[in-house]
């Protein structure tokens, strides 16, 4: 709090907005000591039903974290004599309703909220922990970036007016054409263990020049990745760290760390970012806990028109076709999860499943043009085939369909995001519960293999589950 007192010569002049005792310490301090009795009472009032981990186990894991004396040897925790009021200390930050000064400027402009004063610019950031600019470094491909959408919406709800930027791989960047909450998306692969020095330093300079208040990363951080986040000069630096000795030294450079149970974060399924969401949505003074919203995607008119042309040329009609996704291929556009490697089926199995479709036209989605010949050879030359490689076009194709039959690919999550009935094929029942929790509420039927191998999926069970599409057609 020394930086705050430097703004005013007399600390007593701050009494106008430092009047009430705090219930939870400041958010932007590196490590603080929580009053467990108050925090437990507020936390226990929140009921969440999730199939992965209970709320009590999450709190117990967070409570076991000990203060690291190497971060700040002079930090004795929250000042017990400090009193907070409402000005710059309570409630949420306010979103600036004014339009941009220069809409044609690609670099935007400096947004100043109402009542902003340069002399106390950092006071709201220091006391209340406001976040005006946030950068998200996302590890993984399309599937992992798609499951990060609820976290982005959580940031928008918790910090109104925040500008969110994303760093993702080239494949992952394509996902954000379906997210209106993201300002800029840059192609930078955080999973590259040996990046080019020129590319590394250039991206670091770009992040520093944007002056972020918060940088969060889903890549398991060691000392190297933690140093990259530290050099962005952001105030809050959040990241997952390795659950083993490779995490040594990373906590010294990060504000908050999250330790997954395994080395593969995608093993957590749909709730793979649960620890980070739990910390971002935590209650703060008079602000209650911010719930995690469901997965939703938005589609542009141009993408819809382009996709409509594709499936029309393939012989399908709007609302009268079933999307089949998950054909076995070595293409990078298969959009499967890192947590489920057994999630693609050969075209011979898909041909048996498509044969059971009666009242709809099966539309086969191929990730590469070289698969077209294989599909025509097995299914027939009159098969409806659509070549799609981007998640935005796949979402538009699903949006105009009657339903989806797919393995554990991004198609299942996109069907749930657009409220379309779906049949999900998994290699095991455990995988199905992890990646599609609350399947009945999402109008999703899970069919799992009894042998633990996806190729042994029961085609008859899939055929019986197709009645879901007939019900949806009758409702239309």
From TrEMBL:
GO cellular component, one term: NAD(P)H dehydrogenase complex (plastoquinone)
Acidic residues: bias regions: 73-82
Start-end of Basic and acidic residues biased regions: 91-101
GO biological process: photosynthetic electron transport in photosystem I
Annotated segments matching region Disordered: 47-106
Bias type Low complexity, positions: 47-57
Protein name, as recorded: Photosynthetic NDH subunit of subcomplex B 1
């Amino acid at each position: 709090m020394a930086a705050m007192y430097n703004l005013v010569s007399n600390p007593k002049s701050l009494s106008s907005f430092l009047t009430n005792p705090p219930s939870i310490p400041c958010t932007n301090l590196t490590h603080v000591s929580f009053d467990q009795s108050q925090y437990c009472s507020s936390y226990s009032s929140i009921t969440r039903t999730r199939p992965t981990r209970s709320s009590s186990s999450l709190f117990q894991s967070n409570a076991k974290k000990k203060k690291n004396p190497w971060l700040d040897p002079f930090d004795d925790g929250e000042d017990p004599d400090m009193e907070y009021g409402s000005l710059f200390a309570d409630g949420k930050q306010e979103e600036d309703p004014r339009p941009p000064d220069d809409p044609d400027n690609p670099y935007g402009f400096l947004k100043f909220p109402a009542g902003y004063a340069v002399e106390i610019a950092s006071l709201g950031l220091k006391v209340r922990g406001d976040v005006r600019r946030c950068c998200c470094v996302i590890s993984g491909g399309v599937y992992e970036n798609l499951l990060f959408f609820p976290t982005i919406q959580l940031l928008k709800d918790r910090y109104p007016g925040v500008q969110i930027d994303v760093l993702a791989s080239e494949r992952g960047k394509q996902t954000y054409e379906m997210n209106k909450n993201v300002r800029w998306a840059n192609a930078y692969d955080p999973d590259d263990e040996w990046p080019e020095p020129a590319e590394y330093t250039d991206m670091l300079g770009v992040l520093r020049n944007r002056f972020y208040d918060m940088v969060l990363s889903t890549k398991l951080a060691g000392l190297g990745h933690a140093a990259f986040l530290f050099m962005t000069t952001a105030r809050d630096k959040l990241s997952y760290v390795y659950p083993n000795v490779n995490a040594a030294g990373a906590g010294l450079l990060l504000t908050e760390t999250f330790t997954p149970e395994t080395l593969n974060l995608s093993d957590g399924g749909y709730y793979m970012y649960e620890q980070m969401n739990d910390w971002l949505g935590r209650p703060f003074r008079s602000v209650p806990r911010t719930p995690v919203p469901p997965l939703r995607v938005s589609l542009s008119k141009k993408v819809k028109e382009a996709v409509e042309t594709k499936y029309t040329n393939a012989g399908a009609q709007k609302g009268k076709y079933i999307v089949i996704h998950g054909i076995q291929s070595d293409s990078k556009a298969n959009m499967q999860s890192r947590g489920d490697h057994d999630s693609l089926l050969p075209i011979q199995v898909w041909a048996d499943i498509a044969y059971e479709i009666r009242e709809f036209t099966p539309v086969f989605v191929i990730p590469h043009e070289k698969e077209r010949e294989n599909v025509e050879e097995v299914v027939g030359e009159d098969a409806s085939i659509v070549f799609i490689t981007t998640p935005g076009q796949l979402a538009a194709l699903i949006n105009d369909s009657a339903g989806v039959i797919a393995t554990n690919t991004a198609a299942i999550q996109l069907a749930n995001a657009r409220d379309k009935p779906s049949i999900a094929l998994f290699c095991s029942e455990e995988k199905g519960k992890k990646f599609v929790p609350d399947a009945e509420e999402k109008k999703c039927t899970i069919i799992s293999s009894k042998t633990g191998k996806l190729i042994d999926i029961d085609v008859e069970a899939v055929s019986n589950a197709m009645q879901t599409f007939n019900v949806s057609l009758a409702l239309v």
